Amino acid sequence: MIGELIATRDAFGTALNEFAKDNKDVVVLDADLAKATMSCRFKDAYPERFFDMGISEGDLVGTAAGLATTGKIPFACTFAMFAAGRAFEQIRNTVAYPRLNVKICGSHGGVAVGKDGASHQCIEDLAIMAAIPGMVVINPGDAVEMRGAVRAAMDYNGPVYIRLGRNPVPVVFDENSYTFEIGKGIKVREGSDITFVANGSLLDVAMKGADILAKEGISAEIIDIATIKPLDKDLIIESAKKTGKVLTLEEGVIQGGLGSAVAQALSVSCPVPMRYIGMDNCFGQSGDAADLMKYYGMSPENVVAKAKELI
Amino acid sequence: MYDVKLIEKQAKEIRRLIVKMIGRAQSGHPGGSLSCADLVSALYFGVMNVDPKDPAKPDRDRFVMSKGHACPALYAALALKGYFPMEELDTLRDLGSILQGHPSALKTPGVDVSTGSLGQGLSVANGIALGAKLDGDDYYVYCLMGDGEIEEGQIWEAAMSAAHYKLDHVIGFVDYNHLQIDGAIEDVIGNGKIREKFEAFGWNVITVDGHDVSQILAAIEIAKRSKGLPSLIILNTIKGKGVSFMENQAGWHGKAPSAEQVEQALKELED
User: Fold this and answer.
1) Which of A31, A140, A224, B88 is spaced 20 to 30 Å from B31 by Cα?
2) CB-based burial of residue A176 (10 Å sphere; 0-12 exposed, 13-18 middle, 19+ buried)?
């Protein structure tokens, strides 16, 4: 239901079970974090298709690669930090280079991990994964989008990275009308003065910022880009041509993530003034999730401030 | 049950091809390719159920060359087996070649797993074996590791996993030639007691002369009878085996022989 608070990892765990029911090739691996990534639900339902690899992420990814060569569809789950971070090279060389059908599922992405602090707040995962040739990189914005992303990743033959969020976020999309397509953005709100391009937890922040601006007579168009790669350039360019200003929002480093991808696309076809919301060359720290989001500028108030720099 | 003479003959041919191929490319890793030639020949001309006419047949045995830099040995065996024309060997490491500097499953017929970055192959072998178990298949997964390679921590993660999941159809090999790029293994980091380490990780370990085809074959047969335990066969080998000036020389890990050196090596490798 729209507005309901659900963590995308929660939606991930539910969707995985739902769709694996009719697809016996789906196998799930975890690295001692099944209760956090929510792969524990799959473990309970299909224990014969679940493999806990222990705290060894390189082995997690390599084993998933081997399973993929036998026709299985492995979902390899752990924290974003230890998937995209620790096991980057295994993902790059043993999964992506041979184009194996492995889905890397990185939970607890971003700073909203909260009190565990910077060591567990993976802000680089999307940038790192997007740098790998042929990798599909998805950061769903709510539970409905996550469900669609899981289905799409399962049906897609090739390597995919999906970021899962730890904390509950409001449902944005209507589950009855929503359809997810890899590489397709969604115009969430029509506007004329400025374009917001957001994904993940910042989709909701973008909408709240736009609400404030609307009261001041500023009309923001909001585009949800769950798939950072391949990027829906057409949708972004079309909107930028209309509004002439673009603000990107992401819960991660602005060097190499969504903002960089959007800027790269626009610089070729439709260069417009831009601003970026995200982590700018700094690590996170311990704190309440809400406090951290505000502290690092990933708040509706900062959306308003940044938008006004452009208008 | 195996044609030992054929395997020995093909091992020698593999060695000749390794030298020729790397000499022509002026790039590659002769030392570790020569040290594993007997094993590769035993697998492809004796042990493994594979069919070059149907490289993807589902019940085939799998070979993961985790020490991917030794791929000239694999490429030679695959060519001799008929996976691709022998002339392809003359394109090793060239732009556009099906024979990359390290094995690529997407480019080379008969290569099941892309390798080259050390320490990752055993995990992949385990994954294949888990997939086989799920499907009720009983093919074997052979994984060749270097003795230097097992310095990688992921090998030990995978060693743990194979024992935990009772992957008795995983048969690993360590090409124990005692040399790595920077010198003698014992001088670089001293990763000795390989048998004891794998045994402590729950493996069935067998040690043989890695240049004695009959011993290799016998060890594999013993390993195949292992129930509930993965097996490791330690191959005592000589780096550069068969070429006098390359034998036991760390310098020949990743160096190509000159035209004259190729000629001399081929003379030594004559029947």
Assistant:
1) B88
2) exposed
- CATH code, domain with B57: 3.40.50.970
* CA R_g for chain B: 17
Residue in chain A closest to B102 (alpha carbons) equals A93
Q: How many CB pairs under 8 A join A and B?
A: 107
Domain count, chain B: 1
Of A58, A64, A94, the CB nearest to B157: A58
Residue A175 among the catalytic residues? no
Query: Is any Cβ of chain B less than 8 angstroms from the Cβ of A297?
Result: no
Q: CB A266: neighbour CB atoms within 10 A?
A: 21
Q: At CB < 8 Å, which residues of chain B contact A?
A: 62, 104-106, 112-117, 119-132, 134-135, 153-154, 157-158, 160-161, 164-165
Residue A86: its pLDDT value, please?
98
The CATH classification number of A186-310 equals: 3.40.50.920
CATH class as words, domain A5-170: alpha beta
Q: Give the start-to-end residue ranges of the domains of chain A.
A: 5-170, 186-310
The one catalytic residue in A57, A145, A221, A250 is: A57
In chain A, whose CA is at the least distance from the CA of B165?
A51
Minimal C-alpha gap between B102 and chain A (Å): 11
List of residues 6+ apart from A267 with CB closer than 8 A: none
Range of the domain at B108: 4-268
All residues at 6 or more sequence positions from A127 whose CB lies less than 8 Å from its CB, including other chains: A252, A253, A255, A256, A257, A260
ipTM here? 0.96
pLDDT tens digits, one per residue of B48-100: 999 999 999 999 999 999 999 999 999 999 999 999 999 999 999 999 999 99
pLDDT digits (tens, 9 = 90+) for A7-36: 999 999 999 999 999 999 999 999 999 999
